[in-house]
Amino acid sequence: MGHLSSLFNGLARSLSLKRGRRKSGNCSGREAAEAMAKEAKKNDLVLRTSGFINANGSNNFASVFSKRGKKGVNQDCCIVWEEFGCQEDMIFCGIFDGHGSWGHFVAKMVRESLPPSLLSNWQETVAEAALDPECDLQSDKKHHRFDIWKHSYLKTCAAIDQELHEQHRKIDSFYSGTTALTIVRQGDLIVVANVGDSRAVLGTTSDDGSLIPVQLTVDFKPNLPQEAERICQCQGRVFCLRDEPGVHRVWLPDEESPGLAMSRAFGDYCVKDFGLISVPEVTQRNITSRDQFVVLATDGVWDVISNQEAVEIISSTPDRTQSAKRLVECAVLGWKRKRRGIAMDDISAICLFFHPSPSLQVHPLALLD
Q1: Which helix (H) or strand (E) holds 180?
Q2: What is the CB neighbour count within 10 angstroms for residue 37?
């Protein structure tokens, strides 16, 4: 019962925040979650910029770094939220890659909206499951935990995309959008939700003691058979431009627009009726003692760095605080060697370590130089 006790203690703490806010009027679950986000930020449990975070007593350690490319403003953004939802055994990580002229605004809006919305939906689903006499959370808690997270993610992403379309008129997301790759670690469970072509890769130890990569997500490119089939059924088109062989994009039926290089994204309403979707692929993995870390990175990394290279770069970095920065710097060198003459993309990464490092002693929140 330890897990359930911790879970409901966290819910009780969130409800106390909600009751406190009711003094100034009605408060929804989303408003309560937003209040929790503000409280967490005040307590140095939320990181939105390059740096690292390690809460006292936590097994989690997260390193974050982002570098602007050569195409203008940096449209990547990140977030790490330790003790997500007042749960001591939970952490939320998200990385977002905007595109289009308003992409940086869309990415930041989704970064700010998705975590509290997910938290609100998760709390509501947990409460409903606890009251359901046919749902025994304790008998098969891992199965039910994942079902609850998957339901919460699907509901959240649908709501965020609708909210972006209807309520954020100041952000022009008709021809702009963002990807979203997020994970929640809850004890020994990690839940991964992917919308777009960013990628999550696990670094784990093999039987012979070597570190190997396990790709946890699918890069949702338009030429994937199931993605291309959906787009074509909706009268969208998928093809490469002559000067971009191998780069498949999504196009409107009768126009060479918008030319999206991914098949799932928030925003981009010009092509939402023609096969682009914001539905996440939600998967899970139970962390073992062999699993060392997971890296979340935008396609600016994976365009020039292989999964194996990424886990080797991270594992060979002596100072964990520098792991994300070193991966990004290696990707920058990769662009110079492998993509000469092509404007470098924005490059961002989050490295989440699962086990504490005995030699690492840091303040709860510190920024990289």
Answers
A1: strand 180-186
A2: 21
